[in-house]
Each structure stands twice: as C-alpha cells, then as structure tokens.
User: Fold INSC protein from Sylvietta virens.
Amino acid sequence: LPSPPLPSSMHLIQVDSVQRWMEDLKLMTDCECMCILQSKPISIEKDEQNELILSSQYSTCDNLQLLLKRAWIISTELTRIAQKLEKNRWQRVHSMTVRVNCHVRSMINEYNTFTRSSSEEMHQLEKLLVDKCSEFTAFTERCLQTEDEEILKSMKSCVNETLTTVAQYFGQLIELVLTQEAQRLLRQIELSGSLYVTESAVSSLFSLAQEGAHLCRIIAKEGGVVALFKICRQDCFRCLYPQTLRTLASICCVEEGMHQLEKVDGILCLADILTDTSHSEATHAEAAAVIAQITSPHLTFTQHLSSFLENMEEIVTALIKLCQEASSGEVFLLASAALANITFFDTMACEILLQLNAVKILLAACSDKRRVDTPYSRDQVVTILANMSVLDQCASEIILGDGVQLLMEMLFEKSSSGNPAEVAACERVQQKSAVTLARLSRDPEVADAAVKLSCIPGLIKLCRSPTERNNSDSVLVACLAALRRLAVMSPDGLEDSDFQQLVKPRLVDSFLLCTNMEESFV
Assistant:
C-alpha cells in the first residue's frame, strides 16, 4: 500500500525528536475522551464568545500551522496503519484507526472554527472523509471480533481499500484547504489598499510558501506571482518590497511560478528595482535573491526566460555594483550568487562582467571580511572567476589583482565549524579554484605566477592527502587537471615520482592511485 498523499504537500522541519514529541503531545489526546467531547462546547456560554476567545489567541497563520501539524500527525498515522496491517496487527490497527478518526474530526472542527465560512465542496469532502473514517473504524472493529484466518484474509483487502480511500479523501481535503487559504490571502492583497492588511497577507503567504514546493505550486496556480508583482509596481507599498520579493523568491522555485513571472514581465520589474538607486539596499538584495532563484543552474525550466537576455546587461551592472557597495556579508552573498548563476545562464554575462572590472571588484571584496566572511560567499566568487576564466582577457585581470594568490588560498579552504553544509561549500571552493587555475594556466604569465607561489607542491599535497581535500573526488580530479596543466608549463617543478604517478599516466589511473592512498603515504 502506498503512503498517503499528504507528505508531498507539506514541509517538515527537522527538529530534535523530544521537542517534536512535546509539540505534538497536546494534539495526541486520549481517544475515548476525544470521542465523548467531540463537538461539545467547553462552557454553556454562547458559541460566538467561544469563537472570539479562540480567534484572539491565535492569528490565521498560527491556526494554519496548527492545522498542518494535525494533518502531519494524521498522515503519519495512516502510514503506520498500513505498516501494522501488513503484519496483521489487528489490535494496533483498530486502536490507530480510532485515533485517526478522532484527529480527523478535531482537524475539521478546528478549521471550521477559524474559517467560519466553508464552500459546499469543502463540506462535501469533509462529510465523505468523516463517513469513510467511521466506516473504517467499524470495519477494523469487526476484524477484532473474528479469529478465523480465512475471513481475516478476505477482509484485509477491503480494509486496505478503505485505508486508501481515506488517504485519498484526506489528501483532497488538505489540498482544498490550502488552496482556499491561498485564495483568501490573494483576495486580501488584491482588494485591500491598506498597508497593514497587505503586509499581513504577504507575511502569511510567505509562511505558506515555506511549507514546501507543493504549496508554492498552489500559490502560483492561484495567481500569487501576479499579485506580488502588482505590489512591487506600486510606490505606496515601497516599504513592503523586501518582504514581497522574499516571498516571490520562494514561490519561483517551482515551474508554475517561473511561468507566471514570465507572463507578467517580472524580469523587467526586477531590473527596474535593481537599477533604481532610490530603493533601499534591502530591496536591492531581495531583488537579487529572486534573480538568483530564477537563474539557478539546478532548475531545468529556465530556458523560457527569453526576457532575461533583453535585460541582462542592466541586471549584471546593478548586481556588480551591489557587490561593490554591500554593507554586509548577506547582501554580498545574494548579489554574488545571482551573478554566479547568470554566468552559467549565458556566456555573454562573462564579457559584460569583464568590461565592468568585475574581477578587480570581486578580488577586492575577498579581502574585506565585512563582505566576504563565509565559504558560501567565496564559493560564489570563485564560481564567477571560474566561468570568466574561459575568456583570454581574464588572465591579465587576475594577475593585476593578485588573483593567483587568492586562488592558492582557496585551494586549502577549510570549514571552521564542521557543519556539513559548510564542509560541502569548502569542497566547492577547492574544486572551483583548481578549475580556475587550470583554465588560467594556459596563459604563461599566470602559470609562471602560480609556480612561483608554490602552486605545484600545493596541488600535489591535495592529490596525495585525502584529508586536505575533505575526501572529495571532485576536488581530486580538478587538482590533477590543474597539476597537469602546470607541469606542461613548468616540468622542472615536479619530482620524478610525482611525474610518474600524477602526470604521466592517464587521468583515470592517477585518480585511482590517489583515491587508494593511505594517510601514511603522505
């Protein structure tokens, strides 16, 4: 039995298991009590007053988070029921079915409490789900009352079928709830001229987008990108631009968001924001974040961004200016990440950057700890340099800015925290700096500078010592390629054993030799 369809529509943040248990505990109330108290008012006072108390305690965003947590619990329980059913644990199946029944009813009641108005389609789905859950509970109870293996075997397929139907209705209900919530927020943005209401709606929309790609698709499908760009075209909402752009960056991680962006001339709007010097740095930084998102080389659906090429020179110029004037590491990271992605997106960007003295600006930034203070920022810088290094004119710019020295330092990038993401960033810095050196060393002047800075011994050390390269195979391949290029330019810089093992054989043979080396060899 496949898992219920909900998890694809939800984003579960990884947290400590005890903390997760503590958060979920209040929702895991005793089943018998739930059955007795279901739909019963806490006091004899009017329902309106009870509703007022509930709505004053939580915002819409909090209520939605509560709903999503409840939905996650139900989804998990349905998956566990399928597992117990497979093992014929009928007692467990029944008790968990009762619990799911209670959670479903509670979730529906909670949602209806804070929405107060549901569509006919919603009511029909709710009834279908509740009825099917009741049928499911009754069915599993009957299974407990027989011990005949043949009868249980015949009933098992019916239980499986009912479980699948429950999961299907449940998934449809959650999909409809999230769609209606997105529609409600977008209606607020569309109809309200109030700064406060618009800010609140955009904030809630951002929270919704953080729940995962499926939510982003729903928002995009309901016109979220169109509504947000409408805000970015109104001067009266200027103070909301950073928040709105941040929400756009989240939504545009999915293809539907990208298509909507193209339809509303979103690239032109972003170019206008980036080139308008009257906007705050925060606004420029968030616009850069949207550019970085939509040009990500990891996305497979950026080819249709034809309008990007029309505005690329303006965008690249604004981004390198933002890199130069960035007041913090975060702003520099967003601007440089956008530039790095653009250099993959189109080679013309590298030529534009060369004309804008980008090499000098980026090399200078690497000496400024206020702007380049993490391996993530250095990763973006070296990515740009690696992509620019295919241009012959880039070599002289690197020499003038002492770029070879910087690349040498980047070869030995190390993580200070040991954080896996940071370690991975360090490996990318090492790999790309080796690639850049290999490409630039076709120029004799660069090769000579690299040799004088003891680049050959450094590359040999990286090849022979797995710990120096963080046990990364991609770093090893890049270092072998750079070493071979420098060996051609300066064959006297290698010991005979290094030449015989690292340069003379086929690259794959040298690679296999180095990956099998023990630390004691070094």
Notes: The first helix runs from residue 17 to 25.
